[in-house]
């Protein structure tokens, strides 16, 4: 099936997701277009990570549909969903501690769904020169910042159309944070779409085209960065800052 | 540490094994042959436990099937051609591993252990209750496999030394084969699966396929060991497939060092030698054996082979401590 340029990468409708008996997502609908940067905000435990996991099939929704490039992928296994051109940088970084930095990167390498090979080992190492110095280190012999760079680098090795970052800067030193944000900016400029979950609202407003605030499993606000920046009472109400 | 210094003890051990038949009596050559066979079996299980994260409690089934395939097909033959018998055994074990693996890899953790145990016990009882295949008496083989070109035999396994070197070659080739696939992209994916399967799936890998291939490779290698055991002893019976044998195999892997490949080889030496010599001291030797296994697990949780790197790092630590003390003394003197 040929892909239409105007097709949304992800179009999710009415997602209801549960962990056992607890109802986490209450009918969330969200979409991401090509090249678009979307931020997901909300306090801890409001369902941001669950929403990402539902989109990726890691925690399939009990009701609702997930379409990837117009094709219904609800309930499909995560490997099928991400093969459509989605890369996930999980909250816990997800490095493989028993593989070296090089192996962590190379194992993820594949052309994008349309055969694109923009990102290879050389380009990832140019983007993260620190990793180039650590190639033979095992994944667990890295600082937190290096691990984060490795996860982002590994995600880029899959030549995605969409990059999903869950708390990519959490717990990192300010300088490293800055480095990660500057890479995210480069990624955005290269035309890759992104969904970003983070606590750094200022950085998110600068980057995102559109912002979504989630509270108790529902979308309580959706709007452009300009609008959100102009209405600080929204932050106070939903984010407590 | 360079690759050379790391593989030096391995090369030395290999050299010792190559030279052994020149000095050992035929009894001991036979004993070490048995150890080598068990080492291949345990090494194949390490691919599952140590690298793929699949604790199979039914690995003995494939060992038994390798042996039974040889015995059933050739019990009445006038000559056992190696080039026919070996591929047959490997194929039978691979096929069984494909079926068992296909069912069991869908589960994980304790359920995987239970299902591999259950499926292997089905094989055990099938042979146990099949009069055609000798039931619990098993099958005797009166010939050893030979490799012939025309009417000339190139390799006759009837000679103990020939068998020894054949088994040793199988061990070395099996080891190198496993090292090779672990260095290949395939190996990286299964190592990653061991750490976190969800994460690997989120990277776009269909992990079940990888686990199944790993399971079939391990089963086939176990079948090779079973083939060698059947050919070596000229006898195969259902006890080879019992859960007890699967358990001993796990113990060997853990005792030697999980996730090293050479650890299980060392483990096979320890267990088989203890099984052979402890009974000379006491009839309660299994109690002693159990005690030794417990002691190793408690004091060397990464297996007997972790002793060497431990000693090395201790020496290095001593050195760096004495160095830093010297520096400190120097600093104090300067200050």
Task: Explain what you see.
The complex is a heterodimer of chains A (241) and B (335). Helix content of chain A is 34%, strand content 25%. By secondary structure, chain A is an alpha/beta fold. Chain B is mainly α and 335 residues long. Chain B contains 13 helices and five strands. Chain B has a three-stranded mixed β-sheet. A two-stranded antiparallel sheet of chain B has the order 2-5. In chain B, helix 2 runs parallel beside helix 6, helix 3 packs antiparallel against helix 4 and helix 6 crosses helix 7. The longest helix of chain B has 28 residues, at 307-334. Chains A and B meet through helix 2 of A and helix 7 and helix 8 of B.
Sequence-ordered SSE layout with sheet pairings:
The complex is a heterodimer of chains A (241) and B (335).
Chain A: E1 10-19, E2 22-32, E3 37-41, H1 48-56, E4 63-68, E5 71-72, H2 78-82, E6 86-89, H3 101-106, H4 121-127, H5 129-132, H6 144-156, E7 162-166, H7 174-189, E8 193-197, H8 201-207, E9 210-215, E10 218-224, H9 225-230, H10 232-239
Parallel strand pairs in A: 3-8, 3-9, 6-7, 7-8
Antiparallel strand pairs in A: 1-2, 1-4, 4-5, 9-10
Chain B: H1 3-23, H2 26-52, H3 60-74, E1 80-81, H4 82-104, H5 110-128, E2 139-140, E3 145-149, E4 152-156, H6 160-183, H7 185-195, H8 197-202, H9 207-233, E5 235-236, H10 243-256, H11 262-281, H12 285-299, H13 307-334
Parallel strand pairs in B: 1-3
Antiparallel strand pairs in B: 2-5, 3-4
